[in-house]
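TL;DR need structure tokens for one chain.
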Amino acid sequence: PLSLALGMPFPLGLDRFQAAHPGLLPWGWALNGAFSVVATPLASLIGQGFGITALFLAGLGCYALAIVTWPRRRP
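>> reply
TL;DR here they are.
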């Protein structure tokens, strides 16, 4: 259940993004790929340099930022 919840923001975001700006959808995929490549070694460096607690807090901060900036549907 947790992996399902963590995996849902990207496809849901792509669906909303495609509805609002269909011409920019390839940029969404490109940014996802770029950040995926950068995130793996960055997580390793943060974990080794600052500890696992700092890594978990950084991840929590990223998810909090995503929640705060998530676009709201207007009625």
